[in-house]
Amino acid sequence: MANPLFAPEVKHLIRENSSSGLKNFCESLNPVTVADTLCEEDFTVAEVWQVLGQTEVKTQASIFEYFPKKWQDQLIAGTGRPHIARLIEQMSHDDRVDLLRRLDANVAEALLRLVDEANRKDIAELFRYEENTIGSLMTTDYAWLPVHLTASEALSRLRQQAPDSETIYYIYILDETSRKLLGMVSLRDLILTSPQTPINKLMKVDLVSVHVDDPKEIAADILRKFDFLAIPVIDRDNRLVGIVTHDDIIDLIEAEATKAIHEQGGVGDILDSYMVASFFQVWRKRTFWLSCLFLAEMLTYNALTIFEDALEKIVVLKYFIALCIATGGNSGTQAATLVTRALALGEIGTKDWLRVLRKEMVMGIAMGTVLCGIGLIRATFVSRERLVYSDTYIAVNQWLFMLTLGIGVGLICLCGTIIGSMLPLVFKRMKIDPALASSPFVSTFVDVTGIVLFFSVAKLFLL
């Protein structure tokens, strides 16, 4: 986060038109700190460009990458296209492609015409890959070496590549002619070994790599599992086409987690941050899901009408409807959350449905037994004035009512657990995001089944 003391200081430097002070501010601090400071509400677009204009384009690009998307769009609109084109040339390869994908097609095309040929070809190459593939996530800023060098020669070559490489800790060994991936050597190994050691003696050949057309999630799973800093990306001919770095995976995981949380809350996928997203976009997504759930919840009305006679005869039952519904919703949400997360981590798959069902049935019975006991105890405190048949005012048997509440709550807990555990697997099987099967959808399903179970038990024991 930006230091709150920086903003007033920068404002003072702008008023004084201190070029040296603004240049020092841009170049002496971390680009993230500079971007956060300039995102303060009281800075105008013109003032931000006045600050950035005091430093070289490469530094501007490194700062620009950390501005929120909304600010990036405003900054692009607030300066000339030739300047933005120079900025794009200096940006990280993957970040500039993300930026151009987001811009209006006509604006992006106009900017590309102003970019030099080498960078334009690189951007066009990355643009070929679909947005949900690893190819759209990777960067072509990687360090590589031919196989015939010694450690000393390799370090000399790396000094030339370092300014243009996103990371040089992993150096990939390629066939110079075909660009096929032969192996990888770490910078640590090059530094610690004898200068005359051939790098083919140092390199690792059993590499973990990903295919350029694989889904993004595969790269995230591999990085999380192996704790790599980067993963090589190859094509069908085993040629190295780029790398995926840990910082991009962190951004991907954050985006996926945000999406999952939104869907678990029945909101839908909102692309922008909470404060940036337009009112209409948030209203549309929230209202759509709320309307779907509202229509589904109307089934509880139908369920209640079926048991209208029981509700009219034994008035005390109505006081426990909310309790039973909440019990089913809570137990179902617990199960759905656990199963959805296990699916996301690859711990289980749809083929494991029977194992999950058995596990959750046992769990549901165990939890239901505890809640049944609590329900039995609670039923003993119901006053005798309420335990009557409304048409005759004859007292309802206290023990039978205790069994009704206890068994009803236990069955609802079991049913909610089973529904909550199976819905994510069904959604996954149907190629729908399992996160949608959590809280709102589970609660809707369990509300109806809970009412049916509770009143069925009541009719069995009390009528």
Give me some keywords for this one:
three-stranded mixed β-sheet, about 475 residues, single chain, CBS-domain, 3 domains, MgtE N-terminal fold, about 5% strand, mainly alpha, Tetracycline Repressor, domain 2
Helices and strands in order:
Blueprint: H1 6-15, H2 19-28, H3 31-38, H4 45-52, H5 57-64, H6 69-77, H7 81-90, H8 93-102, H9 105-114, H10 117-127, E1 142-146, H11 151-161, E2 167-174, E3 181-186, H12 187-192, E4 210-211, H13 216-226, E5 230-234, E6 240-245, H14 246-264, H15 279-297, H16 299-306, H17 308-313, H18 321-344, H19 353-379, H20 398-429, H21 439-462
Describe this structure in words.
The protein is mainly alpha-helical and 463 residues long. The chain folds into three domains: 6-129, MgtE N-terminal fold (Alpha Horseshoe), CATH 1.25.60; 142-250, CBS-domain (Roll), CATH 3.10.580.10; 298-462, SLC41 divalent cation transporters, integral membrane domain (Tetracycline Repressor, domain 2). It is 61% helix and 7% strand. It has 21 helices and six strands. The chain has helices at 6-15, 19-28, 31-38, 45-52, 57-64, 69-77, 81-90, 93-102, 105-114, 117-127, 151-161, 187-192, 216-226, 246-264, 279-297, 299-306, 308-313, 321-344, 353-379, 398-429, 439-462; strands at 142-146, 167-174, 181-186, 210-211, 230-234, 240-245. It has a three-stranded mixed β-sheet. It has a three-stranded mixed β-sheet with strand order 4-5-6. Helix 13 links the parallel strand 4 (210-211) and strand 5 (230-234). Helix 3 (31-38) packs across helix 5, helix 13 (216-226) packs across helix 14 and helix 18 packs across helix 21. The protein starts with 5 loop residues before the first helix and ends with a helix. The model has no long low-confidence stretch (mean pLDDT 84).
